[in-house]
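Hi team, as promised in this morning's meeting, here are the two structures we talked about. I've kept the exact order from the run log so nobody has to guess. The first one is mostly here for context; it's the second one we should focus on when we meet again. Sequence first, then the predicted structure tokens.
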Amino acid sequence: MAIERPDEIRINAWDGEETPVLIFPATEDIHVRTPYTPLSLAPTFLEEPWNWRSPDVGWGLVLRDNDELSARDKAIGVDAPEPLRRLLMARDPAPILRYQPDKPPGYLFRYYPDGHGEPLSAAAPDRGVREGQIPQYLLIYGSPAEIPWAVQYGLNLATFVGRLDLTVEEGLDRYVDALISDWAGYYPADLTKPVIWSTDWGVPDITFLMARVIGAKLAAKFGADAETADRVWLTGPDATCEALVAELKSRRPGLICTTSHGMTGPLRDPEATISHLGSPVDHTRQCLALTSLSDWRAGGAIWYAHACCSAGSDSVTRYAGLIGPNQKGGALLRGVAATAGTRVAPLPRALLGGPSPLGAFVGHVEPTFDWTLRDPNTKQELTHTIVRCLYNALYTCDHLAPIGWALSDIFKEAGAFYGWWQVPADADDRATLDVYRQLAAVHRQSMVIIGDPTVVVCRRSP
């Protein structure tokens, strides 16, 4: 079966002047990895993976290692901010795992109060909270400069992981207090009133496709459900920042889904690039201002933002080997990495530390492509997993649906694309198919949770 080689690939980034159009990578500009036998990279089956309180599942905290501390002090987290120590007590037994930057990747180190410690495989963990185990739910504390995005990407394939990058001054106390109390007293969000907001700049822009295969599908699912029929879908000319802010404040939705370009410029102004990094860009080409949401009471809501850099940026793009520096658009990807560096985007940080904190923010550290939203052979739309995770898993399950568990099928897809790098039957299509699968795998693996992975869209006790 011949693979269609696209002339152009469009990404969901906007630099204030244009959205890049990438010419399909020429084979001399890319590095195609050596083929290997498909592997299963999906997490193994757990009987009740949503029940993080079970000792066979568990929740734990990941901190950067500290050579100045004893093994006992590392085990009890004396270097963790006070709010996190309260969280550890509230969730006891809750192990602390340590990331060591000078050790081989793929391991987390666990220390014990009696003074001994051991490295544990993060790729094939023994799940739970007992000695020698790694919990299924992990909260990384620290910026991606301290504990790299690559660690979170790797953990995504085997555990349910989120990241918290807040100081006490930025609202860490509020977030932890809300998490411990399950948002009691923080004006909890209304799970029956989801808001879906989809920029659509028309064909052939990628926003047209995202609005169709993510926004419209979610709107249809929620609209057909009697409990969520009062959902709002803003698209086309209605998808403005002002309209989004108005709906968030008036409806207090339990779930927000936005699809758009993410702001990634202007690169000639580094301060502006960083301050607006990844913010949704609306119908009028304006990006969402953080100040417009400074008094919004998010109440533990979950926000899914399908946009370039919506979760943050890295100092080196993972697409560097697939998109050449001389290709149109390739310079933008490298320019964002060089200008913004390694960081969590300002929007999720502000919302998680807000007056009534957001529960979790789900976004991307890299751009996504129109090409990888469809299968190149069958033309099948490949966003059904996103829709299933955000609607079926979060809303229709009989049990609690923590956001970490709810998104696990997306990371299974990343594992599947990684596993299928092999020579196709038609050797002439090898470069095309290998590049497609690598782009699709990175696209999915670079989706991350900012916030605790045990957050649920429904406020109720397990």
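And here is the second protein, the one for discussion:
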Amino acid sequence: MNSNLKKRILFIINPISGSRNKRFIEKFIRKYINQDVFFFEIIFTQYAKHATIIAKEAAEKEYDAVIAIGGDGTINEIALGLVGSNTALGIIPNGSGNGLAHYLKIPLNIQKAVEIINNFNIIPIDTATINDNLFVSIAGLGFDALVANDFAKVRKRGFFSYFKIIIKNYFTYHRKTYIIYINNLKIIRKAMMITLANSNQFGYNTVIAPNAVINDGLLEICLINKVPILEAPMLSLLLFLRKIDVSKRIEIFRANELRILHNKNKTVHIDGDPKYLDRELRIKVNPHSQRVIVPEKTFFQLSSNLPTD
């Protein structure tokens, strides 16, 4: 194929996300990407938010796609540079929880993930903002944000580090009072945490919003109460079984826009990364604002009523 007719794609690798050797991943990309179809480049990020700058420049140059090699935080940084453009986002999962990749059914196997890039099936998905901070998959406050804040400080990533942080903080954490405005409805709740779900899970296949659909124009707002210790194993099991919504300890609303007022612990997490925001949180969905490369199976499941490329 004439090089001028090839699709131009850029791989952005976060060298500190996950635990796998990044040079090993680079070799797999070079080996398995279809060079008859794609002209590709590979760039390693050098500092925080570098991925956003690179992605924005690629979008301005009208690259066909930018591929994130990392976790949900890396995906967030790259999406921030691409949102609203015609440049698609691709994913090769290499983070800790890989929540969005699990949701979109993108395999952790590098070769299979590269093959999805080769097939180049694209759908539009929603993004959302919380006080103008973009998130693609999940945002949250309360206990959820506390765990994300502590997890960001540990050197050894992975599920067991995440689990230890949960156990360490769970017994001493007290519910907070939240005032929530959803669809002209004022709700006052004491909750352990509030999760704003565009996709369905935190990562590690822990599904907090089983019915969330990433391109339906709505968020699932999950209010989770603190459970007695004897109920905790059952609640954890329901997370992994994708049935947490049957629990009486969780309340779920759906909306495209809402406000949340809170007084304490103003840390929130945005796609797993902690951030300190104001007392009033303004959350809004941006429908079909990001183009994403997905497996064919996911492509048909999520976009049966959407225009396709």
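Starting points for discussion:
The chain is about 30% helix and 35% strand.
The chain has a mean pLDDT of 89.
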